[in-house]
Amino acid sequence: MACYYFDTNALYKYYRGGEKGAEALERMVGQSLIFVSALTQLELIQVFFKEQRRGNLKKRAVQRLVEKMRRDTTTDIQSSRPFKMTAFSLVCFEQAAALLLQHGSDLAFGSLDALHLAIAQELQAAQPGVRMVTSDRGVKAVCERIKLAYVDPETDKL
Predict the structure, then answer these.
(1) Which run of H or of E encompasses 146?
(2) Which numeric CATH code is attached to 3-151?
């Protein structure tokens, strides 16, 4: 079974639907082992609130999306819920800082992007074959530089 780590970009597309790549993500979720992190969920809530402030989501819709995200996520890898929560160590913060120092000056690549990549690297060490899922240009560029396998749901055939 294929294994993936969704960054916030991917998880947002999945929950909002209608976004470019959302259908590919829906297929992926139905057929694969999908990992997310507490960072992914925290960032996603922030994005939902940002969309609410912009008038793109109503308050009740945000509440429903957050509730659904929480119901869809578990730490039990055997569960039928679509998303498996992966823990990450404090070492990820050191690795994220190293990634940011190495790539942040010439790419649109921020601290939370770096932390997602560090989490994906740690996860890949424990679960070989895990691939990052993102459409973020900066994240994809760093993935290529560090040779971390990734999938872009907007362009890759899944």
Answers:
(1) helix 137-146
(2) 3.40.50.1010
